[in-house]
Design brief:
The complex is a heterodimer of chains A (293) and B (317).
Chain A (H helix, E strand, L loop, with lengths): L1 H15 L4 H22 L39 H37 L1 H16 L2 H12 L3 H28 L2 H8 L4 H38 L10 H9 L6 H35 L1
Helix pairs in contact in A: 2-3, 2-10, 3-4, 3-6, 3-8, 4-6, 5-6, 6-8, 7-8, 8-9, 8-10, 9-10
Chain B lengths: L4 H6 L7 E12 L2 E13 L4 E6 L5 H8 L7 E9 L2 E2 L5 H11 E4 L13 H12 L4 H14 L5 H4 L9 H13 L5 E5 L7 H18 L2 E6 L2 H4 L5 E6 L2 E7 H6 L4 H8 L29 H19 L1
Parallel strand pairs in B: 3-8, 3-9, 6-7, 7-8
Antiparallel strand pairs in B: 1-2, 1-4, 4-5, 9-10
Helix pairs in contact in B: 4-5, 5-7, 7-8, 11-12
Classes of the chains: A mainly alpha (293), B alpha/beta (317).
Chain lengths: 293, 317
């Protein structure tokens, strides 16, 4: 076992080189940034020296001051710690990114799988759902969905999940179509496997590499769109911090105090950039893997 | 045991294992109705080997798929299929799948696509035994290792954790054969099982199939477009052309000489070692009839086919 495991690892490492050094560096950077963000968000309450997100720690719009942790990134328009608000805001942003992506995945994999496997009517329904979702302007549809479900954390999360599910329907359907033609599906059927079993046990594992490269990309989209919603005032209700809300607040004073808006904007940028770098890297890796097989 | 199986087993000795009568398969496509099988009769006795040969598109694979209930839902089947005295087509789908899944093993053409690329060999092999034989995880794994060993995969127990891309084409086909043998089937079907392999590996795989068939007293169906694959390894050969069986003979008779013009034309197309370099081989004029051609008049169809078959013989004469 060890011998064959070792060869598997070396072939993967050998192939990885072709992804390109830059892609790998960006991937590592992305993972590191997200890891830092997740750790900070999880342990926000116990980080020593980190003020609460509503606590006024100084005068408004102070520049970065390295003397204490709270003032590391300066203060916002009412004197609250930018660092603290970014970290607590990360809880919301990352939670929404993960959960709404899971919701999108669930909707997309179910519809896409049925459409790609059964073709016919199911394919028609899947295509119509996906086309309808992508035909409507996403922000308008989001606002409508949020208005219908309610401006709560869950309302926004579900609405975002629905909005991104069209990507997953398409990607899943395409991958299922390609895999359902392969003989191993026929082989499984000849062994007596039911449709459900073939879909879950044979085809689903083959979707993982394909979906793995799409997941980070939609997470990036979700982070941006959630920020936009908060910016427009339809996001997480105050006083909970959110990056979009911070950007909106900072936008009012951008001329005189550009430092207030800089912190959340840079955080958002780095986060989206990291998701995309991870997605690109996984995409280039999985393309090669499927091509090899 | 399936209901009805016990009664069937009693007079199994004189019945063929597989009996197909008047099997027709028509598939509705966007281009029209495809007449894939136009009335096929076939028997496979217990423990014997049947070869099915024919050109591409003659219906060899579709015949197997129709018999084994693997056709798409848009296909209309008619005729009867009896497996060990049980009317397969009258069974409810779930029951039919369970019975055929256990009693028929299939080895498909392309070893590159017939194994799931993201599931390890051990898990794939264990699926059938856990599903049909109700084995536990460990017992299924032991059975898989034992079967891999029997089909000549070196280091069988260690290779169960490997994935299909870590096997060569010939080894993958051995894995497929081991999977097909899992439930000790009564019938092993090799659908162009060696077509994708190079000639030396082809011989190894065919020898393996033959050895296993003799050891386990299974019936076997070898499907190929290559006459040399079925020569010497089958008891009987049927020749398919345009969805029908046009000739059926014991293997040695077929190769010793048959008056059938299509078979003679096919044999004329096999190059022999004595053929001088750059010699032209016999070819048939035109193309076989389209699957979309309903061929309503059997007599006219016969004349058309005969004309095409004989064209190759005239050329070589």
């Amino acid at each position: 076992m060890t011998a064959s495991r070792t060869t598997a690892i070396t072939t993967i490492l050998g192939r990885r080189r072709r992804v390109g050094r830059a892609g790998r560096v960006l991937f590592i950077f992305g993972v590191a940034w997200l890891a830092l963000l997740v750790l900070a968000a999880v342990f926000a309450d116990v980080i020593p020296g980190l003020p609460g997100y509503e606590e006024k720690i100084g005068s408004f719009a102070q520049g970065p001051d390295l003397s204490t942790l709270g003032t590391l990134l300066g203060t916002d328009g009412v004197g609250r710690s930018n660092l603290s608000r970014i970290i607590y805001g990360a809880r919301v942003s990352l939670m929404i990114a993960v959960v709404s992506t899971l919701i999108g995945l669930l909707i997309g994999v179910v519809f896409g799988m049925l459409a790609g496997y059964y073709r016919g009517v199911a394919e028609g329904v899947g295509t119509i759902v996906a086309n309808t979702l992508s035909a409507l302007p996403p922000l308008i549809m989001l606002l409508a969905l949020v208005a219908a479900i309610g401006t709560s954390l869950w309302g926004i999360t579900i609405a975002l999940g629905v909005v991104i599910s069209d990507i997953y329907i398409r990607v899943t359907k395409g991958a299922v179509l390609a895999n359902a033609q392969r003989e191993y599906v026929l082989a499984a059927r000849s062994l007596g496997a039911s449709d459900l079993r073939i879909m879950l046990r044979e085809i689903l594992p083959n979707l993982i590499p394909v979906l793995a490269s799409v997941v980070p990309i939609t997470m990036a989209v979700v982070v941006v769109v959630e920020g936009s919603l908060s910016f427009l005032g339809y996001g997480i209700p105050a006083p909970n911090p959110s990056w979009g809300g911070m950007i909106a607040a900072g936008a009012d004073t951008i001329r005189r105090y550009p430092g207030v808006i800089a912190a959340p904007v840079i955080t958002l940028f780095l986060t989206v950039f990291s998701f995309n770098a991870i997605g690109d890297y996984l995409g280039s890796r999985t393309d090669r893997r499927t091509a090899q097989i | 045991m399936e209901p009805g199986e016990g009664i069937a087993a009693r007079d199994a000795a004189d019945r063929p294992l597989l009996e197909v009568r008047g099997l027709r398969c028509e598939i509705d496509t966007t281009a029209g109705t495809a007449y894939v099988l136009r009335g096929v009769d076939l028997e496979v006795p217990h423990g014997r080997t049947l070869g099915i040969v024919g050109e591409s598109g003659s219906g060899k694979s579709m015949l197997l798929k129709s018999v084994l209930d693997l056709v798409p839902s848009t296909a209309h089947l008619s005729g009867s299929v009896e497996f060990d005295g049980i009317d397969v087509r009258a069974m409810p789908a779930g029951q039919r799948r369970r019975m055929l899944g256990r009693r028929v093993g299939i080895v498909f053409q392309n070893p590159m696509t017939s194994l799931n690329p993201v599931v390890s060999i051990g898990v794939q092999m264990a699926e059938a035994s856990r599903f049909h034989l109700g084995l536990g995880r460990r017992a299924a794994r032991e059975l898989a290792a034992d079967l891999l060993d029997q089909v000549g995969v070196p280091n069988a127990a260690k290779r169960l954790d490997d994935y299909p891309h870590q096997f060569s084409g010939g080894m993958r086909q051995r894995v497929m054969i081991a999977m097909a043998l899992t439930c000790e089937p009564d019938l092993l079907v090799a659908d162009e099982a060696t077509t994708a392999l190079d000639v030396t590996i082809q011989k190894q795989i065919l020898d393996l199939l033959q050895r296993l068939q003799e050891e386990r007293r299974m019936a076997m169906i070898i499907v190929s477009h290559d006459l040399s694959i079925v020569a010497g390894r089958t008891d009987e050969v049927v020749v398919m052309y345009a969805g029908r069986i046009v000739e059926r003979r014991p293997t040695d008779e077929l190769f010793r000489g048959t008056p059938h013009p299509y078979v003679r034309a096919l044999r004329a197309a096999i190059p022999s070692l004595d053929t001088p370099a750059h010699a032209r081989l016999a070819t048939m004029r035109g193309a076989p009839p389209s699957v979309f051609d309903p061929r309503p008049d059997p007599a006219a169809a016969e004349i058309e086919d005969l004309a095409r078959w004989c064209s190759a013989l005239e050329e070589s004469a």
